[in-house]
Write a structure and sequence with these properties.
Structural class: alpha+beta
Largest sheet: 4 strands, antiparallel
Number of helices: 11
Number of strands: 4
Length: 251
C-alpha cells in the first residue's frame, strides 16, 4: 500500500485515491464540485470538530457498524462510540491498499444490513422518482448519526425537479478523520457501489474538501474513477490518519 501519499510535511503530496478501475456509464448529467487544494484552503474553523450528542439509537447504530468493520478487517479496538468506528476505519486504512479498503467496507456493510431486507427494498422500490426521493428522505432521517445533520435538496433529473439530493453541510466522518483518502476509499466509493448493488439505486457522492460538505445525488451515476475530481485531491496537511498512527489495534 502506498503509505507515503499522506506524508505530513509542508508540501501537498497527492493522495492515491484513484485506484478503482471500475467505470460507470453515465445516464444523467452529473455535478462536479469546484475543489481547490484542501491543504491550502481549509481553515481552522472548518477543521473544528462539532460536538455530537448521540441518542440511544445513534449509539446502537454506531456500535453495530463499528463491530461490522472490525470483523471485516479482522482487528478489534477498545474504544467506544464514534471514536471506535473511526479507529476501525483507520485500521483498514493502514492494513489494506485502496482497492482492498473499498472491498472491506462493502463486506462490512453487507454484514451490517440484512440481505433479505435489502432485497425486499430493491424489489418494492425500483428506480423511479418515488424511490429516489424516498432514499433521500430516509438517509436524512436515519443516517445523521453517521454523516452528521443533513437536509433534502432538489436537482434536475431528465429535465424535471426532484427532491433526490441529500446535502450534508459538514460530514462527520470527514471532520473526525481529516483524511481525503479515507473519505474516498472508506466512504464514497464503497457506499456508491453498495447502494447500487444492494438496492439497485445509483448514487453519486460529491464531497467538497474545502468546507467538508457533501452531496449524495440519488439516481445519478458517479463519473468514472478516472474522471472523478474527488479522487485526485491532495490530503490535508494535518491528516489524522497518519498523525495518529500510534493507536492501539487489538488482534
Amino acid at each position: 500500500m502506498v503509505a507515503n501519499c499522506f506524508r505530513l510535511n509542508r508540501s501537498s503530496a497527492l493522495c492515491s485515491t484513484h485506484w478503482n478501475p471500475i467505470k460507470h456509464k453515465l445516464e444523467h448529467p452529473y455535478m462536479v464540485a469546484m475543489l481547490r487544494t484542501p491543504s491550502d484552503s481549509i481553515t481552522e474553523e472548518t477543521r473544528k470538530v462539532n460536538a455530537y450528542k448521540d441518542n440511544l439509537f445513534d449509539r446502537l447504530a454506531i456500535n453495530h457498524l463499528s463491530k461490522s468493520v472490525q470483523e471485516a478487517t479482522g482487528l478489534s479496538n477498545n474504544k467506544s462510540g464514534y471514536e471506535s468506528l473511526v479507529e476501525a476505519a483507520t485500521v483498514a486504512k493502514h492494513k489494506f491498499d485502496p482497492i482492498q479498503q473499498q472491498e472491506v467496507i462493502i463486506q462490512a456493510l453487507n454484514r451490517a444490513f440484512p440481505r433479505p431486507i435489502l432485497s425486499f427494498i430493491k424489489t418494492v422500490l425500483p428506480s423511479s422518482k418515488l424511490a429516489r426521493e424516498y432514499f433521500a428522505v430516509f438517509t436524512t432521517l436515519f443516517f445523521a448519526w453517521l454523516v452528521g445533520p443533513c437536509e433534502v435538496r432538489e436537482s434536475k433529473v431528465n429535465g424535471r425537479s426532484e427532491k433526490n439530493v441529500v446535502y450534508i453541510p459538514k460530514c462527520r466522518f470527514l471532520e473526525e478523520t481529516s483524511c481525503v483518502g479515507m473519505c474516498n476509499n472508506l466512504c464514497k466509493m464503497p457506499s456508491q457501489t453498495f447502494i447500487k448493488d444492494s438496492l439497485g439505486m445509483s448514487v453519486n457522492m460529491v464531497p467538497n474538501f474545502d468546507d467538508m460538505s457533501c452531496e449524495m445525488i440519488f439516481g445519478q451515476d458517479p463519473p468514472a474513477s478516472t474522471d472523478d475530481p474527488a479522487l485526485n485531491q491532495p490530503c490535508y496537511k494535518l491528516c489524522k490518519a497518519y498523525k495518529n498512527h500510534g493507536t492501539n489495534f487489538l488482534s
